[in-house]
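HUMAN: Mind sharing a backbone?

ASSISTANT:
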Amino acid sequence: MDSLQQLVAGQGLTTTKAPYIENAVANGEMYITQPYELYSADNHDAWRRLYARMQDRWARYANPRFLDGLDTLCFDATQVPRLEDVNKFMAPRTGFRAKAVSGFVPAFDFFDCLSRREFPTTITIRDGASLDYLPEPDIFHDIAGHVPMHTDPAFAETLVRFGACAHLAAELVSTVPDRTEKLRRLTSIQNALQRFFWFTVEFGLMRGTSPTDIKVYGSGLLSSYGEIVHCVDSDTTQRHPLQLEWVINQHFEIDHYQPLLFIVTDFDHLYALVGQLEAWMKAGKLDNVTPGYRQMSEADAQSFLEASLAR
């Protein structure tokens, strides 16, 4: 079925219900184009509703750099953004560009994209009947949650440095002669990197203008109507200054509000933490972190090594 036929059929680009994505995955296409003509009226309506209901919550809870990013990107509140338009406003600020993908991106490829100032971006959007939660990312999470932060130079440099950690990890384990030990160490490092990303880029909190003021910079919070309030105001959420040892050994789950979150001082602090992560990696302090959610399989670890060697 070609694009025009899909458009006539009115199937749209709804998460888990998009033939265009199914075909891309079946053909092994990870990087794709955004077939904008396939978005249905329901898809645009879902974006409009998601975007409209976040306005007051962003104004109250989001960090100022995110709000500046929203202004820079000039989103149309009534329809799904075109990635080419997003990049037109974002790239001149930090060099970052949204890069359309068909779904899951292997670990090394994801990190490598960040190091090259590319952000793998899902192009489907959640069903209008399920606005509050879905386990996989969609274009609202990626574009409205992540991308405004990518217009900030300090945050962008942090992402680039973090992405380069994948190359460092591959370099460090490449000298280990025993294959089993090599994959074990890489899996441990990947667990640490995954947790750091989760508790900062996805679910990070930041000090505001006063000691008691907390703002949100994590995309998983910024794209969630319910959790952006819960993470700051709820007495059931633990909020602690970020300590690297805690973060890299802290388990997390994705199907409920996060009970434990970490606070950084500012984006310079976040950048310095990535530097500390690099130093710990070189010193072998990430070689024995505790296993956890989405444990890296041996096949994934081998793929990570092979992809790094191909670069």
